[in-house]
Design brief:
single chain; 294 residues; alpha/beta; Rossmann fold; UDP-galactose 4-epimerase, domain 1; 7-stranded parallel sheet; two-stranded parallel sheet; 9 strands; globular; binds NADP nicotinamide-adenine-dinucleotide phosphate
């Protein structure tokens, strides 16, 4: 029988990859929960994907999205009220008798005392655990695709990217691998009650990352280590709210201190193949880092 799997945040960095991978499977109906129908238009082209409008603040939209959903891949955005948003989604999942939730959390969510970002994620994880619904938590490190979302312009225009992380190494993970672990947790067996720390295959310094960009793009790309106050000013000048800029600085501080380098074999264990390397990522996303000739 066909299972219906609801993906929230389906137009986001991880959500659209989860929808894509689920759409390739037989016997699965994918329901892509999108905040904006216009942004969700591309997802309609995938086989067996139903696109539904979903606004976490609008209970009616949630009722419609959760009705007859068997399982949920639950993503909430990096928002100040993310714990409250997630609570509303868990309540809806209970009402709809959902069988399993795969939650996109973050690496170090259970660290004590940890950082604010992790504490929010752990609070949400606890709400899910207490709901009585079967669950799997995904705890990925920072995404390789952040370089597409946040560094592509400066790489294209200046041949540089800026971060306040010193020589700290980070075991960045490709979101395609995060999605693959999530898909297996949704359709496979034995993932109930698990919390998967997910990383890429190696921890790299940002100088090493710059060298990989230089090698693939065949031009000199440099990492610029910026002081914390410069990073803060830069984030605020791009209209980032202060709470978010401070949370990001706290995360960068963890990386600078060398605590972002933990490497796991989760992708290999759960999906049965190695995690993609940073080199593989830059080769595949090459086009995002060069000016279009059109
Ligand atoms: N970035 C990282 O390196 C990293 C690493 C580990 C964990 N995480 C975690 O990953 C999560 C974010 O995942 P992501 O990067 O895939 O997200 P994303 O790209 O920021 O996308 C967020 C999605 O949520 C939707 N959304 C926003 N507000 C909404 C609302 N009020 N109602 C319904 N939908 C709404 C967005 O739609 P619109 O765009 O149309 O608003 C979008 O589809 C966060 O919890 C973050 O802590 C991130």
């Amino acid at each position: 029988m066909h299972k219906t799997i609801l993906v929230t945040g389906a137009t986001g960095t991880v959500g659209r990859e989860v929808v894509k991978q689920l759409s390739m499977l037989d016997d699965i109906r994918v329901r892509a929960g999108v905040h904006s129908l216009i942004k969700g238009e591309n997802l309609r082209r995938l086989p067996d994907v139903e696109v539904v409008e979903m606004e976490f603040e609008n209970p009616e939209s949630l009722h419609a999205a959760f009705t007859h959903a068997d399982k949920v891949f639950m993503i909430t955005p990096f928002a100040y009220d993310q714990v409250e948003q997630a609570r509303i989604l868990v309540d809806e999942a209970k009402r709809a008798d959902v069988q399993h939730i795969v939650r996109l959390s973050a690496s170090g969510a259970d660290a004590e005392p940890g950082i604010q970002l992790g504490r929010w994620h752990r609070e949400i994880e606890r709400d899910i655990e207490q709901s009585g619904i079967s669950y799997t938590h995904l705890r990925p490190t920072s995404f390789m695709q952040n370089f597409v979302n946040y560094c592509a312009e400066s790489i294209k225009q200046e041949g540089k990217f800026y971060m306040p992380v010193g020589d700290g190494k980070v075991s960045y993970v490709d979101v395609r691998d995060v999605a693959a672990v999530g898909v297996e947790a949704l359709i496979g067996n034995g993932h109930e009650g698990q919390a998967y720390e997910i990383s890429g295959p190696e921890a790299l310094s940002h100088t090493e990352i710059a060298d990989i960009f230089s090698q693939v793009l065949k031009t000199d790309i440099q990492y610029v280590d910026v002081p914390e106050h410069t990073a803060l000013q830069s984030m605020l000048s791009q209209s980032m709210p202060e709470w978010m800029a401070n949370a990001m600085l706290e995360l960068y501080g963890v990386y600078k201190s060398g605590y972002g380098c933990h490497v796991t074999d989760t992708v290999q264990r759960v999906v049965g193949r190695p995690a993609r390397s940073f080199l593989h990522f830059v080769q595949d996303y090459n086009h995002c880092f060069v000016e279009s000739k059109l």
